[in-house]
């Protein structure tokens, strides 16, 4: 196992010596990452999924445990971590959403920094660290969610990188903790991360493999035990089990990556742009460079090669899962760290024989190119659509009393922007959640629709992908009054003709809109 490159004697420095031992490139990596993400901005459009995580965070900040505030199939940390941002916002008198986005942006910065440490420490090369960090920074999709979150995949990626870094230092308990945290953000992170950690323990813990695996298991149980105790005390243990595992196991229909491959490729190109080639190249190169670990001479020349088969095993496990379950481009986040490491490993091996000066020059050019790619994407895709969503929401609510109520049907955005609470924890009605509702709500999904009308909220925000049949089920008790970016407004007909007319003016009602047509009998 190679030592940290900033230590010469294996002794932990203290005081002034420790300060002098700090890698000067680490704050540079952090600063550059911060600039890239800040330039991308925090006013990007709030989509349905981002709205769900934001709303979940607000509910946690209000004291409602995960899954009780809103039903979601991701891990509990997808609720808890945005909740930390919401709590900070309320303590400081800040905007909930922007504060959550800043917090997640800092997690993205930390992820790039850990990518640097991973490449640096694995190959005892700051150049390899810079190339690894540069690749991680350049991935367009990662930049998108870095400042326009909150999305659970950002902290998940940070924890995956941390687990891989812990493996390189034989920190098995820490690796287990971080694997668990990644999984508690999003379950799909388990397959790649756990595989890499376990294979790493088998490769590195000579004569102590069982102890290493037990430490991994013990570390993994710690976050589970802490959250489990919280849920048990809060009376939400069953709901948490259903949200984290039960619904996914029983109701989620697999979406294998064996059809529509042209659409998948278009989706990846749209999300990752030119960096899709970094993603593909990094995955292939990680496998190829790992083959060099078979050679004892190669391992002696580059000790970091010893660990690479574990990373490749994790990559293969992650890709195998994606082949079985693929929804969109963000599903590749669990393998982004492996692709970045593949590029860093290739640099380390390819430049092994070069003198220090040329090697540093090559690293600077590669990392600098990655930064240029990242900056170009960040600036060119800066978005301010959140401002339009705020204005559209404020205009509609200005026509109603301050205590006006809103129900969300796959449109949590106005709840997030106004700090209102949905009448139920149900907002999502696809990917198996509708079947779960059929089995758990009195009268099933049709009963839910009847109850929605009977409860009489003032407004119903309906996501743009909700079917016409769903919309028709709440009419004529609710009438279409206009739209906002990514959702439509329906108002309770009993509010009166004058109020409905005011709402339509505020919401930009268009009589020719297909939603304005009366529902088919």
Keywords, separated by commas or semicolons:
24 helices; about 525 residues; 4 strands; about 5% strand; mainly alpha
Number of helices: 24
Following the backbone from N to C, one meets helices and strands in this order, namely HHHHHHHHHHHHHHHHHHHEHHHEHEEH
Rounded mean pLDDT is 92
**What is the overall silhouette?**
elongated
Total DSSP E strands? 4
Distance between the termini: 72 Å
Enumerate the spans where pLDDT stays under 50 for 5 or more consecutive residues. Answer: 1-19
Our estimate of the beta-strand percent is: under 5%
Largest sheet: 4 strands, mixed
Helix content: 55-70%
Strand order of the largest sheet: 1-2-4-3
Structural class designation:
mainly alpha
Radius of gyration: 25 Å
In terms of topology, how is this protein built?
Blueprint: H1 15-21, H2 25-40, H3 48-61, H4 77-92, H5 96-123, H6 126-138, H7 140-147, H8 153-168, H9 172-185, H10 189-204, H11 209-234, H12 237-250, H13 261-272, H14 276-290, H15 296-301, H16 308-324, H17 336-350, H18 356-380, H19 385-397, E1 406-409, H20 413-418, H21 433-440, H22 444-455, E2 459-463, H23 468-472, E3 478-484, E4 487-492, H24 497-506
